[in-house]
Amino acid sequence: MRLDKFLKVSRIIKRRTVAKEIADKGRITINDKIAKSSTDVSVGDVLVIAFGNKTLTVKVEALVESTKKQDAGEMFSVVSETYKEQY
Fold first, then answer.
1. Which residues have a Cβ under 8 Å from the Cβ of 79 and sit 6 or more positions away?
2. Confidence at residue 42, expressed as pLDDT on a 0 to 100 scale
3. Would I find Cell division among this entry's keywords (predicted)?
4. In contact, 4 and 19? CB cutoff 8 Å
5. Of 2, 21, 29, 33, which is least packed with CB atoms within 10 Å of its CB?
6. What is the strand order of the sheet 33-34 is part of?
7. Percent of residues, the chain, with pLDDT higher than 90
8. Contact by Cβ (8 Å): 63, 1
9. Is 18 helix (H, G, I), strand (E, B) or coil?
10. Quick one: pLDDT at residue 86?
């Protein structure tokens, strides 16, 4: 499954176009390699996503083409969530 589609279906990022923009700016890594929006995601991959002042690390648990909102959380598990200090 493409990275941008995984981020949307899992509801980590609400819109696929936003997921594509973030990935193509080099702010997402898969297994320590910078990923583009078209990069394939597999079960067991570790994604590190850099949002403004937050860095989210998740592990892919399942790949589903479409899911309901309440089931989206089963597609990944949060490894860590860190915030940068603002001055």
1. 46, 57, 58, 59
2. 93
3. no
4. yes
5. 33
6. 33-34, 28-30, 46-51, 54-60, 76-83
7. 69
8. yes
9. helix
10. 66
Dihedral, 63, 69, 71, 72 alpha carbons, nearest 10: 40
pLDDT interval class at 87 (50, 70, 90) = low
Q: For 15-58, how does the pLDDT look when each residue is reduced to its tens digit (9 = 90+)?
A: 999 999 999 999 999 999 999 999 999 999 999 999 888 999 99
Burial class from Cβ neighbours inside 10 Å (0-12, 13-18, 19+) for residue 63 reads middle
The DSSP output letter for 64 is -
Cα(27)–Cα(77) distance, rounded to whole angstroms?
Answer: 19
Q: What is the DSSP letter of 12?
A: S
Q: How far is C-alpha 10 from the chain's CA centre?
A: 8
Q: d(Cα 50, Cα 29) in Å, to the nearest integer?
A: 9
CATH class of domain segment(s) 3-83: alpha beta
Task: For the chain, give every domain's residue range.
Answer: 3-83
Locus of tokens 């860095």: 55
- Record the tokens describing residue 70, joined without a space: 């309440």
